[in-house]
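User: Fold this; tokens only.

Assistant: Input:
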Amino acid sequence: MLEHEGTEPGAGGGMIAAPPRWVRGLSGKLLWLTIAFVMLAEVLIFVPSVANMRLRWLQDRLNTAAAAAVVIDGLQPLELPRTVQDDTLIATGTKAIVLRKDGTSRLLVVDDMPPEVDAKFDLADVTSLQSISDALYTLALGGDRIVRVYGPIGDNDTIVEMVMQEKSLRSAMIAYARSVFTVSLLISVFTALLMYLAINRMMIRPVRRLTNSMQAFAEQPEDPARILQPARGGDEIAVAGRHLSMMQQQLQKTLKQQKNLADLGLAVSKINHDMRNILASAQLMSDRLVDVEDPMVKSFAPKLLRTIDRAVGYTTEVLAYGQASEAEPRRRRFCLAELSQEVRDILAIDAESGIEFIDLVGAEIEVDADSEQLFRVIHNICRNAVQALSTYGGDTPGAVRRITVSAQRVGSVVAIAIDDTGPGMARKARENLFAAFRGSARSGGTGLGLAIARELVLAHGGTIALVEKPGPGTLFRIEIPDRPVSLDDWRARA
């Protein structure tokens, strides 16, 4: 099977653009453009140059004719022999020489005088544009005309005229143009080669190096050896190389992290399958505890059942998180104080740990949310606070270790504050606060708790943020708005 020109098979089965050929690449384009531009500049220079050459050629012929006219005029009243006249006309390249002096015109030398003249040129009064126009006309259409050229001799009033064919002038102009074109072409090629060598070293080779690095990295992005080693320098290509190297390093880290996440997802799926079987057995055994008449068992059985049910729900939702999606909140209005008390019971803070859990949530506050998801949010933050406080202040007498949960309703929004007196969060943890696997504030943590909490809060249309506080510790503020009520539902209730 034939491949497309300019492409080659990539590592992933796709087609990667092959390096362009020399003629079609930047190097070839640069060389041809340089030659074309230099030739264009030479053309712009050539036009006035050939016009000046024409004037100089005519002026030289006129000076020669003037010298012959002065000699012939000094021999008067003698008449030159016909052979001398012919030699003079051949030497000056003219058909007739006329001398105008003291208001009179005298035909000094003549040979086969044409009946009429096609054009006349006054060398004493010629503009640049007229000179260029006459030169271009002579090159393009001239050669067969009979022209009359005249001009003064020195600074006096004597004027010399000569009648001549334009053919010899055009031949001289063509020879001049040919030599100028040859020199211009050599200059263009030499200049283009110099520019090509300079720009190829400064630009083309670095750009080709960047291109080869991108192609090599695209084939095996996980190979650290494929990362570009940026060159030193402060020009644009060097800066682009450094940015490309940084981007490749960041992309390689991201790909590695994605691979780890994929492996983690597979492992979690396997663990989740076995964990659900274990929890199902525990759930069956815990159901039998309800029938036990022991008062102690009766008091702990409901909490144990709710805990196992919640664990079963967590394992069911693990795969949903692995697919980067959480279940839609099943919202209802419930008493927030009951949920706060349940979080306190699940944490089961040991009295000997010295950690206080203060619940300031009023019994009148109701929140419109998914109770299970909101429990996960508050429980994650409170559990992080307990872990931070358990290793903080142990060597400091009188250190206060306290977790305070409070809430208030303002209009249709319930604001929940979770405050602790722990060591606070490190700067790195603050910068990646809600980023999974990067926002952990403790050693060995994954940062998934806050990432999950933020996703659940956002699903409710709320916000979660770390609030700055004057004293030590950490303060999280969660805001959950009520669902908007449609006009039809309000009317039905009314």
